[in-house]
Design a protein that fits this description.
There is one protein chain. The protein is of the alpha+beta class. Helices cover 44% and strands 14% of the residues. Helix 2 runs parallel beside helix 8 and helix 6 packs across helix 10.
Length: 234
């Protein structure tokens, strides 16, 4: 299936309502794409929210972010343990994301072990609607649990396990895991991700490496029809 056909089956067959977003780390700055202007606070979640609302396409670099997790997750930049600790200490008083700094660092170590940090080998991250990004790396699908269940079902139909996460960190669980391991994932994500992207209480995020999405896409329509017929029986 072409990228256009994949988008059509996601929107028309699966029923995804929000803009589907594509991410593509690049080793060089694209000459024909605008550089994001200003600083997104906190970071990539704000930029993704702009794509969802406005359909814009841009590339983004470290200076465009207050939080670097989205760029760390895609091999664009890195952050040492000391830098992470300092950043947490600065916002912990006003944003109680962790019980204390020791708890934050303990979770940091667990995440490093469970979801390794990609090697820095890219200069920037291209962000835009799925329909406008050629050969994307990751595809973000904002959908209902029912729609996510169908995607999981299709993946299982082809004999694969679909891993999901809950925890503190949108980019960590929605991007880094999928980018590093080249597997799909779903997550409830965190407060910032949900708020700045504009997810309602009935939506979550499914992230698919494009090559994996291309494999399951031809089976989505048949599985949607089966599930709907099955539900109508009861």
């Amino acid at each position: 299936m072409t990228r256009q056909e994949i988008e059509k089956t996601l929107k028309e067959d699966l029923g995804v309502k929000k803009e589907i977003v594509a991410l593509k780390p690049l080793k060089e700055f694209p000459p024909d794409i605008p550089h994001y202007e200003g600083v997104a606070t906190p970071g990539l979640c704000v930029q993704i929210g702009e794509v969802v609302k406005e359909g814009t396409v841009f590339y983004t670099t470290r200076e465009n972010h207050q939080c670097y997790e989205g760029l760390i997750a895609t091999g664009v930049c890195e952050l040492s343990r000391e830098e992470f600790r300092k950043a947490v200490e600065e916002f912990l008083g006003s944003f109680p994301a962790y019980r204390d700094i020791d708890t934050a660092m303990s979770l940091y170590e667990k995440c490093i072990t469970s979801i390794p940090v990609p090697k820095v080998e890219n200069k920037c991250l291209l962000v835009g609607p799925f329909s406008k990004i050629d050969d994307p790396d990751l595809v973000l699908i904002f959908c209902t649990p029912h729609q996510a269940d169908i995607l999981v079902r299709v993946y299982a139909y082809l004999g694969e396990i679909f891993e999901g996460f809950g925890g503190s960190g949108g980019c960590l669980f929605n991007i880094r895991h999928a980018y590093y391991k080249r597997v799909p994932t779903f997550s409830t994500s965190d407060l910032s991700w949900r708020m700045f992207i504009g997810l309602n209480e009935n939506e979550l995020t499914v992230t698919m490496p494009y090559e994996r999405l291309a494999v399951i896409a031809p089976y989505i329509k048949d599985n949607v029809e089966y599930v709907n017929n099955f539900l109508s029986m009861f």
